[in-house]
Amino acid sequence: MSDGLVKILDGNTFVVSDERGDIEASLTDPTGLFSFDTRFLSKWVLTVNGERLNPLSVDDLQYYETRFFLVPGTGTVYIDAKLSVIRRRAVGNGFHEELTILNHADKPVNLTVRIDAGCDFADLFEVKDALEKKGKYSARVEGDKLVLGYQRETFVRATAISASAKARIDKSGLTFKCRIEPHGEWKTDIDVATQVESGATRPRASRRQSQERSLERWLAQAPRVESDSDGLKATYLRSLIDLAALRFSPPIAGGHSLPAAGLPWFMTMFGRDSIFTSLQALPFTPELAATTLRALGDWQGVRLDDFRDEDPGRILHEMRYGEMTAFEERPHSPYYGCADATPLYVVLLDEYERWTGDRALVRELEIEARAALNWIDEYADLQGTGYVWYQRRNEKTGLENQCWKDSWDSISDRGGKLPGFPRATCELQGYAYDAKVRGARLAREIWKDRELADKLEKEAASLKRRFNRDFWVEDGEYFALALGPDGEKVDALASNNGHLLWSGIVDKSKAKAVAQHLLGPRLFSGWGVRTLAEGEGRYNPIGYHVGTVWPFDNSFIAWGLRRYGFKEEAATIAAGILEAAEFFDGRLPEAFGGYERSVTKYPVQYPTACSPQAWSTGTPLLLLRTMLGLEPHGDHLVVDPALPLSIGHLELLDIPGRWGRIDAFGRGRVDVRKRTSRR
Length: 679
What we know:
By secondary structure, this protein is α+β, with helices and mostly antiparallel strands. The protein is 31% helix and 25% strand. Mean pLDDT is 94; it is low at 198-206.
């Protein structure tokens, strides 16, 4: 499935164009050259003798590089072309483009080659929300360069464009006059460099070589998959490459990388997304988790700031670098408005140590982890009931829903009514419980603080007892989506129940009923678990958080099912999601439609889903872990496979961890066909 756009990226710099390589962006269109949340190129159109070109094919060479094969002509019927054009583009500090024109005729040709260039320097928030600019634009020719500029007070951005071939440069682009002999060719290299504040740095041609070496090292260090399933092997490789593409080195990380959230809107550091992706990738690339923990710890909240929804100990939601953040028209410098990243920070720290044995990092981040644990009770319990609640203090530009389902209508009761604020969604309580249990282990075994460990264990036991009483919907036998401000149950049936299993907060006596709902016809589409059950008041199979299937969501649901011993149910979810991945060429999108599988026969693409998206990229990795039943136990790795029949034989080789490197094997024995082909 393709949206007709071609995307290449490197860190948080990315280019989105059409299949000709051209860019014609509008204020609301996320195409162009973007870096650090600013669009540095909004127009980039190639013509030959005044004509646009037609695409023959696009080669997806690597995540950072692509090649466009084009011919002149505007007709609908192909006629043997006498010219062909190749654009090879690689992203780096801006991008580098090699333009080659081939003359296939037996006569020379004289051509006028033109590239029209322009830039609106839109902040990514302006693109997303269709807002107008407030600064001044400039365009000037400086020797052999075209410099497009923007300035608003001290906020300065510029794009410098230059070429190796002789060109006539004006304020709107570059024009080349060339003569190509029979069966000859003409070439030029074009550099588009981004400039922040002052001093543009031209992209280096050797950048591609360093990217190639980096990707080769990344793939060589990751575990290898051998399987009877070619689809699984292709999806795994696609996931590793996309995860490499989404590596982002924020200035605070000292050259180390963590996962950016997703293309195009979220190519930056997100607390929740980076944590979830690091958890998914931990058995494969544990270094992402270490960087995520350090970077989020460095940015941890230290004060009360209503504009940024900041509290002491709170882990950030999102960090931005664009114009609107610089002028405090948005609070993302950073913004702390999420209620889940803080307990999840402790969960990741503990899981990281369980896998790697890296106690030094746990000691290094002891102060940050203690502050996060303190935030749960000191600042998140807005009602004094012992639960984690959220309500934004920044009413103008803060996030209303501060859970992972953060769209405006994602939290509702059976009839579709939206509760007031504050809200306490069910999965937040699970995360808090898990953080306390895991924090107790760290306190007892590594920080050597027995008093804190005892306190956290008692608090966790109390939270679990109260939660199973207050959130349980007796007549439906599932957990309510949330509690409203008066303590009333917001009683819609949603996928959040699966996260509760993952956290361990569910009483064993209730787990079977929860598992049956997750694999039942209202939630399970045949491809995966819907975010909201069919039949609920706000259910919509193509509603962002109210009926779509989110691959990341399903990966943690599968992990939760394994935790409670529901191996076959976990394998069923894994099979559905991995089979869906094949329809997306191995690249799972952020979300896809929640239509019943027997009705559509293929997963229906969600129109504005991010792709690649970090926690969707991490989904096949976590599903491999759940299918193989991989769990660290002391210095050993337990392997307890339960694989779908369709997988056949599966080997995961050279799994890194505190045990060094180890292999895991399994064979598909779970028949999931009845559930995945239902109706």
